[in-house]
C-alpha cells in the first residue's frame, strides 16, 4: 500500500476501484469522525519543512464543530415543530361543534342557534344602537341598549326582524354605534361561528377551522371558545 492511498489519493491503478466504491456509497456527507481522520492523516504526512499552521488547524476544527452544531439545532427545531403541530391537532379536534369568537362582524344565522357575539366598547360607551343587515345591506333588525357599558358586551339575536318575523338562514352583519365622551362613534362588533370541521396543519401550514357558512379561519386568529 502506498502513501497516496493512506492519505486518500488515487493512483492510476486505484482509480477504477475508487470510482466503484464511491458509486456504491449512499452518503456524501462528512461526519465529525471523517474530519478528525482526515486531520490526523494530514498531520501524519505533513511536510516537516512546511508544517500545518496552528491557526489554520484550529479554524478547521471550529468549522466542523459549527456545522455539527447547526445540524443538531435543526434536528431539535424539527422535533419541537412536530410536538407543537401534534398539540395543535389535539386541541383543534376538540373544537368541532363548539362556537368560536372571530375577528369579524359578519356571522352565519341559523334558526336553531340564532346569532351571537360581543360588542367591543373599550374603556366605555353608552346608549348603544345595534343594527343587523343582510347580505344585500338591507337593515333587518335594530336594537337600542341604554345605559353605560365597558369592555366586551354580550350580544344575541334570535333571527327575527324588527316586526318579529323570522328571517332566512344566511350571512348577516352586525354594526354598533354608541356615545363615547358624549360623541357618537362606531364601535366594533365580533360574532361567534360554529366549527363544523378542522383541517390539520403541518410544520409549514397553519391549522384551520372550517366555520359553518363562513369558510375557514386560522386557529391562531380565534379569540375565544364557548360551548
Automatic annotation (TrEMBL):
All copies of domain FlgD/Vpr Ig-like, residue ranges: 121-178
Provenance organism: Pseudaeromonas sharmana
Keyword Transferase in annotation: no
Pfam families: FlgD (PF03963), FlgD_ig (PF13860), FLgD_tudor (PF13861)
Record-linked InterPro entries: FlgD, FlgD/Vpr_Ig-like, FLgD_Tudor
Protein name per Swiss-Prot or TrEMBL: Basal-body rod modification protein FlgD
Residue stretches spanning the membrane: none
Keywords: Bacterial flagellum biogenesis, Cell projection, Cilium, Flagellum
Protein family membership: Belongs to the FlgD family.
Residue ranges constituting the FlgD Tudor-like domain according to the UniProt record: 87-222
Function in brief: Required for flagellar hook formation. May act as a scaffolding protein.
Amino acid at each position: 500500500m502506498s502513501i497516496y492511498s493512506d492519505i486518500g489519493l488515487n493512483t492510476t491503478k486505484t482509480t477504477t476501484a475508487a470510482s466503484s466504491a464511491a458509486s456504491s456509497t449512499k452518503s456524501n456527507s462528512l461526519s465529525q469522525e471523517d474530519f478528525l481522520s482526515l486531520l490526523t492523516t494530514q498531520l501524519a504526512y505533513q511536510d516537516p519543512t512546511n508544517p500545518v499552521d496552528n491557526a489554520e488547524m484550529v479554524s478547521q476544527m471550529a468549522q466542523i464543530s459549527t456545522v455539527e452544531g447547526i445540524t443538531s439545532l435543526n434536528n431539535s427545531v424539527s422535533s419541537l415543530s412536530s410536538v407543537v403541530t401534534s398539540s395543535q391537532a389535539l386541541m383543534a379536534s376538540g373544537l368541532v361543534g363548539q362556537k368560536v369568537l372571530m375577528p369579524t362582524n359578519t356571522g352565519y344565522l341559523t334558526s336553531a342557534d340564532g346569532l351571537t357575539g360581543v360588542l367591543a366598547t373599550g374603556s366605555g360607551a353608552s346608549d348603544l344602537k345595534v343594527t343587523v343587515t343582510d347580505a344585500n345591506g338591507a337593515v333587518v333588525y335594530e336594537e337600542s341598549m341604554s345605559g353605560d357599558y365597558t369592555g366586551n358586551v354580550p350580544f344575541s339575536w334570535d333571527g327575527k326582524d324588527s316586526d318579529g318575523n323570522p328571517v332566512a338562514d344566511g350571512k348577516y352583519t352586525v354594526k354598533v354605534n354608541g356615545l363615547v365622551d358624549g360623541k357618537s362613534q362606531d364601535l366594533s362588533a365580533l360574532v361567534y361561528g360554529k366549527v363544523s370541521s378542522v383541517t390539520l396543519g403541518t410544520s409549514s401550514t397553519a391549522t384551520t377551522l372550517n366555520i359553518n357558512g363562513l369558510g375557514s379561519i386560522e386557529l391562531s386568529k380565534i379569540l375565544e371558545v364557548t360551548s
